[in-house]
Amino acid sequence: MSEPEASPAVAAVSFDDLSLVRQAQAGDAGAFAQLVAKYQGRVYNVCLRISGHSEDARDLTQEVFLRAYSSIGGFRHRSSFYTWLFRVATNVAISHQRQVRRTVTLPFDPGEEAQLGRQARGLTHRAGNPSSGPSERLSRREADQLVVAALLELDEQHRAAVVLRDVEGLDYQQIAEVLQVAVGTVKSRLHRARKMLRERLSPLLEIE
Amino acid sequence: MDPQQRDKLEQQISAYLDGELSEKEVAELERLLAESGEARQVLAELQRTVSLVRGLPQEQPPDDLYESVTSQLERAALLEPTDVGTPARSALDRWGRLRRFASVAAVLVAAVGIGYLTITGNDKGQREPAKQETELQLAEADRSEEVGRQMRVAAAPAKKSEAAAPSDRPARARGITAEQSVPKEVDVLAAAPPETPAAETHLPSKASPPPARQPAPKPAAAVVEHVASTPTLAKRPTAPAGTRGDTTVDQSRLVVAAGDRVAGVPAEVQQVTMLVTAGRGKPVWQASLKLSQALAEEGVTFLPVASSDRGADGRARRYYGAAYEVKAEQPGVPLYRFRASPEQVARLSNRVAGVAGVQVDVQGTDGRTNDIVAGTKAEQRERLRLGDVAAGLQARRTMELSKSVSAGSADVERLALGVPSEADSNVPTDKDEAAPGRAGGRQLGLRGTARPYKTDIAATRPAPLARRKLTRDKDVAGVPVETFGQFTRADTQPSQTAAEVEVTVLIRSLGQQREQ
Predict the structure, then answer these.
(1) B93-126 residue pLDDT tens
(2) Is this prediction's pTM over 0.80?
(3) What's the average model confidence in pLDDT over A85-114?
(4) Are B73 and A69 a contacting pair at CB < 8 A?
(5) CA separation for the pair A118, A111 (Å, rounded)
(6) Strands B405-407 and B453-455
(7) Which of A99, A188, B75, B220 has the most other CB atoms within 10 Å of its CB?
(8) ipTM score assigned to the predicted complex
């Protein structure tokens, strides 16, 4: 029987956050800059996975921190800072996605299921071959591209739930706080999102 | 299993994989999994799906993201009436209220405490610390809010420098706003590198008040002035019509600012920020195009100047070509800026300087950029508005164009002067303007001896670039020598090829122009 997978490393709330946030609220921009340095990578990845574009993610990350800075005075420490920050990040990223409605550039033609199947089956085969070195890495990269493409086909809310859970490792309660929905909604969204992902990635899931 | 049951099962398995089921639910599900092959199949597929998503690599953010963010934050902090919020102000306001409240509370506490001591007369020794603390609170409360604000503002970078900012990232911030349309180098969020002696930061503090502003040097004299930390801005005349900042609007101009700190390199190493400012009526786009070509060849990263400098979709980096044209019609507006090494600046400036009608200046800082945070926010804004930022930021500046070069190697000097090195034919020179590809991509080796020496280029040898600039800069006609940059660092090691030069400030102040 398989054990539940260990979730990715959940952000350790540093005690430094509290003092840094308080300093930032008192007008110490340097303290906020330290928070930027600390969280920029995670915020960037959240924005990247939701937007699907590195350039967008870069812009969105800037926007996230600007908004966070402008409203940090209103942060009441009712949640952890990173939860609050991720709320800003997801709001910014989702809002951006809704506004842009940009055509996603996929590494392949998403309409060609047959091609996807062949490609994915090839990846599965190569990934399962322990002797393949560079080719395995290549397969992994290609598989990642497929996963990213599948993620981008989810609507923003479902995508955000998956990103927060499986990329950022937040638990349901934290995701609920970030998305400002009930825990049950988080559970439901994750379920639907994974179901869609599973269908989309079914060729990759074939077990030889 | 009907679809509804299957859906419910999948949802439970999804939560199971996340460890979000209760013990009872887990027990029930695992019993079902043991009995049902279909359930196990669902579990396996979901596990694989989740593994694929969780296996996505964590992407590294762009190297310049931190700098870009802090730059924007710094602007937000300094320039209150902008599109971004002003948490610093609101925080300060709140802080001010807290301080006022604290002062009242402190007085009450002190009165009660003194009364109690008077009555009891006991335990004086034990109560002394509390009394001292109360006195400190009273003293603190007596200060004006403005003074407190100044100190807090000034203390921000100082705290950062003491606190060893994230070592792998330069705690650095710059700011350029289209609203002010002036070049500036700001370091509000940034830390002075630990190697920088605190005494050289010119941070105003209670212990060491800022030095008084020195009188302006006479025109046409090659004078290096140490800029005061808190210049008397109120006495500065408003920029007259036709001028803005340090940029003359009737002349296209590229302003190159130097002096950003670089992470992970010694303090004496300076990277360079080139700030390009467009004038009016001149084909600045030609220079911009040329510069962009050179930048691409150098692999230099572009940074957007400000949101207003972006295209209609807010994405300057992708539309900077259009931005050139737009900004060329708006005199004095910084077009873009980017980071480059000093030697890259030398090459780039050398190339764009060949474009007719465009002037290239080199500005820079010596890294002591904390002066910008001196004074109240109102003073800072005024300083920004008047285009005094560069001067305010720099520990040194020239009121006239001058030439002063010291170098750690002959190559550095050759590079600065655009004189081709026999050993390195890729050093760009004026002649290379016709073949811009020659200089691309290659880091010039600044190896050689670290033998420090100083020379006055104006007096001892010709400086093609300087001469050219001089003849083109009508604003400084009559000034005998113009400098490209000042190179110092006698203490660099020969192996630190990138550390051997430091481009320092050479900037002409608007005030001086008006006096002329």
Answers:
(1) 443 344 444 444 555 555 555 554 444 444 433 4
(2) no
(3) 65
(4) yes
(5) 13
(6) antiparallel
(7) B75
(8) 0.78
Distance from B28 to chain A by nearest Cα, in Å? 13
A81–chain B nearest CA distance, Å: 16
**Closest alpha carbon to A79 in A92, A91, A88, A70:** A88
Instruction: Categorize the per-residue pLDDT at B74 as very low, low, confident or very high, splitting at 50, 70 and 90.
Output: low
Which chain A residue has its CA at the smallest distance from B154's CA? A28
Residues of A in contact with B90 (CB under 8 A): 73
Q: How many domains does chain B have?
A: 3
d(CA B56, CA B202): 48
- State whether A91 and A121 are in the same domain: no
Task: State the residue range of the domain holding A149.
Answer: 113-205
Contact A34 B165 (CB under 8 A): yes
The rounded distance, in Å, linking the Cα atoms of B245 and B363 is 13
Residues of B in contact with A66 (CB under 8 A): 69, 72-73, 76, 84-85
The domain boundary, picked from B146, B162, B178, lies at B162
Question: Does residue A201 share a domain with residue A118?
Answer: yes
Tell me the chain B residues in contact with residue A55 when contact means C-beta distances shorter than 8 Å.
315, 317-318
**Same domain, residue pair A163 and A139:** yes
pLDDT in tens, B295-322: 556 555 444 333 333 334 443 322 222 2
Q: Which residues contact A100 (CB under 8 A, 6 or more apart)?
A: A56
For B464-472, what is the mean pLDDT?
A: 27
- Residue B246, in any domain of the structure: yes
Stretch 117-176 of chain A: residues touching chain B, C-beta under 8 Å: 140, 143-144, 147-148, 151, 162, 165-167, 171-172
Same domain, B331 and B387: yes
Please say whether the beta carbons of A112 and A103 come within 8 A.
Answer: no
Q: Do A62 and B169 touch (CB under 8 A)?
A: no
Domain that holds residue B71: 67-162
Picking from B68, B306, B304, B77, the residue whose alpha carbon sits closest to that of residue B179 is B306
What Rg, from alpha-carbon coordinates, does chain B have?
Answer: 29
